[in-house]
Q: What sequence folds into this?
């Protein structure tokens, strides 16, 4: 029963070491503070124990002391704050060229799809030493993707994408927990992250697949007729999507947004929300017509149009369309 | 200090307890002291209900698999535990009981500014409480006390609206109490009771009242919005209806974070009074302790989104809220240092209230320091929504707020009941509570860092040892809480009659009889001394301090 009693979680990602280092620093700082207060309490309690005939000495206070114990903690707190912020920023900023995995959470299971097309449920296989970016959304309520061994957690929301990333450093099988309460089987919404040596992982990946996610996306793009308006030239009723992803987009109302996963998603489900400058809001909504998985595939496809060496090789040629529109509107 | 024995009085003096008898004299009373007792009985009732839920939770978690109750039942248990403890015990605890009893007396007033509103606030609490009981008995709620959307508005089929309305009604009771205190403290102070002579208990309650008045309406309106979305399907929080689930979290925590200060500030006030009395000293750095209460109340409103660092808010927002969270930690630290410094060159006694105060300082310090971990963005990502958070806020809300409440109850019990409680039993209970508490909640810090998420009905095998320790601690803690209730009840009938000032404590409340008369003072006191004038009280050849009856 008690054969398995760890006191420190496994450290299996690059982030884990950073978090642990700060955690240990905080343990030391708070340990020292506790020791200081405890020593003072115990010492005073013993030394100034009531004795008959000995009166307490009334002391009003001391401004220098008050300033000392206001500014020293404040300074220590600022150090912790800055360190914590640095660790957080690293953990929130997925490196470029990360491998992408799309995650769809639902009561009470995790559905994962690699950009290469492999699908998994409640289990994610990843190689050691590669940056993996998770693009996550929920089909129903809020969930949270939590891998203690990676010190990584991100809430997964319905209606939008949230993003997280990690880089595993140690092969093994690690817990995947849902950390945001989501109903009856919340504690059953668990799974595992299987970290493999790259060679093993390649072997695993070469197993059955229906082709890359972007290819499925391209198929859906054609089936839904998107392709009739979003043409690869400048004549379409909708913007040309070649090379759009990751770039700033000037909108009809003068704002500029970055074309990230959430923007693509929103433009499919609520096309009228952010209309590209120079275009009319003629696109119908696809809310309810595409599943979360199809949506992911579409996003993956649009993204692939901006990657060199893929379908969207004419990215350089395509961007001017947006740019010329942008320039035009600025002149007006 | 040993409590002085008193000569038994042949005829009991008239006081607020024996002035009138009968149920009606209690249910229609406008005496702040009687209302305090009504609150005491009601919140004790809810405390034991919430405690019963906690016991079932701990028993279920004894084993990794779900065996004692169903998953849905477990989810309802932790939800109802949280709702009952937060809204029906902790928030009213010190303000509505000790504050109600003491605020007028400490400032030399006959009653609160609005005695009838005071009674109304108790009735609202009771109506809210009955609604909550009805909700629990007819199925309960399973969202967690946090009501996160869209789970609460569109997915659960439990009694969200009913529970929400219960909290809504009880919230008004809290607002009215706060309002009453603010007006009372401003308008009803006895001649000579200047702001700088106020006991720090009053400062703490003043700060608390501000939060109650400004924060509670926000949770009230949030509950209404949840009810509207749930019943009328108006899109506010549910993204499928065009709403934003994060908006709910912002609104919820805008109240629910400051609510923690509603619980802890009064407790800090209590501990300050106790430390001054049992160290026989004025409080070190009076004005710093006073203003730190106000600073906590103000900064407390600016840190809510530190509950949302992984919820999907922008990294820059997270940065700001992390920084502000450290700002609120400073005044808390200032208080701890000043309490400790007060002991220096004191003449320290170790009666039960002081043991609770020591316990408070220790546990609050640990709770506060682990708050620094959670406010650190990088660490919060790992430990938020795990048992680390559970342990942290129980150290603050149970180790802090509840220890202070129990300490205060012991300290003022002779004044409230006119009877003495059995001192050695009380010291034993304080020790049991302290040990039981640490055994229950310390293992949860480790569980949290290991990664055990909160609100888990089942858990992986490797978390079991720590969970067993925690459950063992909970049973000890349960005994520690039952004991005071039993000997307080016992003392009401069999306890020795209390002298007017058994601790030889400073403060106007100790210059009345025990128990006080209905209007507290026979004639309005005139204050010519600072708070905590222990030098005068302990002076070897002091003149008799005039007793104002």
A:
């Amino acid at each position: 029963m008690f054969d398995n009693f760890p006191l420190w979680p496994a450290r299996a990602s690059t982030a884990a070491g950073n978090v642990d280092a700060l955690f240990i620093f905080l343990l030391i700082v708070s340990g020292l503070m506790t020791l200081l207060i405890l020593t003072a309490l115990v010492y005073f309690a013993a030394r100034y124990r009531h004795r008959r005939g000995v009166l307490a000495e009334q002391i009003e206070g001391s401004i220098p002391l008050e300033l000392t114990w206001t500014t020293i903690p404040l300074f220590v707190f600022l150090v912790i704050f800055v360190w914590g912020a640095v660790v957080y920023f690293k953990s929130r900023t997925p490196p470029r060229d990360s491998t992408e995995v799309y995650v769809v959470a639902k009561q009470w299971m995790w559905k994962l799809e690699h950009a290469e097309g492999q699908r998994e449920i409640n289990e994610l296989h990843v190689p050691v030493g590669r940056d993996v970016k998770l693009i996550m959304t929920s089909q129903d309520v809020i969930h949270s993707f939590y891998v203690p061994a990676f010190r990584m957690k991100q809430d997964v929301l319905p209606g939008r994408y949230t993003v997280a990333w990690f880089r595993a450093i140690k092969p093994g099988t690690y817990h995947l927990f849902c950390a945001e309460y989501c109903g009856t089987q919340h504690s059953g919404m668990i799974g595992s992250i299987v970290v493999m040596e790259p060679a093993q992982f390649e072997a695993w990946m070469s197993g059955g697949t229906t082709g890359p996610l972007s290819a499925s996306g391209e198929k859906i793009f054609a089936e839904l007729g998107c392709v009739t308006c979003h043409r690869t030239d400048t004549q379409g009723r909708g913007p040309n999507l070649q090379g759009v992803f990751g770039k700033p987009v000037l909108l009809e109302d003068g704002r500029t947004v970055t074309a990230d996963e959430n923007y693509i998603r929103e433009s499919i489900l609520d096309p009228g929300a952010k209309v590209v400058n120079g275009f009319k809001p003629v696109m119908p909504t696809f809310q309810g017509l595409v599943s979360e998985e199809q949506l992911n595939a579409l996003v993956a496809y649009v993204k692939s149009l901006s990657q060199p060496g893929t379908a969207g090789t004419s990215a350089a040629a395509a961007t001017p369309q947006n740019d010329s529109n942008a320039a035009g509107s600025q002149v007006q | 200090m040993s409590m002085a024995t008193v000569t038994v009085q042949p005829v009991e003096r008239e006081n607020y307890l024996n002035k009138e008898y009968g149920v009606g004299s209690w249910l229609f009373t406008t005496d702040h002291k009687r209302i305090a007792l009504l609150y005491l009985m009601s919140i004790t009732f809810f405390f034991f209900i919430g405690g019963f839920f906690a016991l079932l939770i701990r028993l279920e978690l004894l084993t990794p698999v779900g065996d004692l109750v169903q998953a849905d039942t477990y989810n309802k248990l932790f939800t109802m535990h949280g709702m009952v403890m937060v809204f029906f015990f902790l928030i009213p605890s010190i303000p509505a009981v000790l504050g109600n009893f003491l605020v007028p007396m400490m400032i030399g007033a006959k009653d609160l500014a609005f005695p009838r509103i005071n009674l109304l606030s108790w009735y609202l609490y009771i109506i809210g409480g009955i609604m909550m009981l009805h909700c629990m008995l007819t199925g309960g709620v399973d969202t967690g006390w946090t009501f996160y959307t869209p789970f609460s508005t569109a997915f659960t089929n439990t009694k969200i609206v009913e529970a929400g309305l219960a909290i809504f009604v009880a919230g008004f009771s809290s607002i009215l109490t706060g309002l009453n205190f603010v007006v009372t403290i401003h308008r009803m102070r006895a001649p000579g009771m200047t702001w700088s002579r106020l006991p720090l208990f009053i400062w703490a309650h003043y700060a608390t009242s501000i939060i109650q008045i400004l924060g509670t309406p926000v949770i009230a309106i949030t509950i209404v919005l949840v009810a509207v979305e749930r019943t009328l399907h108006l899109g506010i929080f549910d993204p499928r209806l065009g709403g934003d689930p994060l908006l709910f979290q912002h609104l919820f925590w805008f109240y629910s974070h400051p609510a923690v200060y509603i619980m802890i500030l009064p407790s800090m006030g209590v501990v300050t009074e106790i430390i001054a009395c049992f160290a026989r000293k004025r409080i070190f750095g009076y004005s710093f302790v006073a203003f730190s209460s106000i600073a906590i109340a103000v900064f407390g409103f600016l840190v809510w989104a530190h509950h949302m660092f992984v919820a999907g808010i922008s990294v820059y927002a997270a940065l700001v809220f992390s920084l502000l969270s450290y700002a609120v930690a400073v005044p808390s630290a200032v208080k701890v240092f000043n309490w400790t410094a007060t002991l220096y060159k004191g003449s320290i006694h170790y009666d039960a209230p002081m043991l609770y105060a020591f316990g408070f300082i220790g546990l609050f310090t640990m709770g506060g320091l682990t708050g620094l971990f959670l406010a650190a963005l990088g660490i919060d990502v790992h430990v938020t929504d795990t048992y680390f958070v559970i342990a942290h806020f129980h150290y603050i809300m149970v180790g802090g707020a509840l220890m202070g409440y129990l300490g205060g109850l012991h300290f003022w019990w002779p004044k409230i009941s006119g009877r003495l409680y059995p001192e050695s039993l009380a010291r034993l209970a304080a020790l049991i509570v302290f040990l039981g508490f640490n055994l229950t909640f310390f293992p949860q810090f480790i569980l949290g860092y290991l990664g055990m998420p909160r609100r888990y009905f089942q858990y992986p095998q490797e978390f079991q040892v720590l969970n067993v320790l925690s459950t063992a601690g909970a049973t000890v803690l349960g005994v520690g809480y039952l004991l005071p209730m039993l000997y307080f009840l016992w003392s009401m009938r069999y306890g020795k009659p209390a002298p007017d000032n058994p601790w030889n404590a400073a403060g106007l409340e100790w210059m009345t009889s025990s128990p006080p008369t209905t209007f507290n003072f026979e004639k309005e006191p005139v204050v010519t001394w600072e708070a905590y004038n222990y030098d005068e009280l302990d002076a070897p050849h002091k003149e008799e301090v005039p007793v104002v009856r």
About this structure: Chain B touches chain A through 94 residues (CB under 8 Å). Residues 58 and 471 of chain B are 5 Å apart (CA to CA).
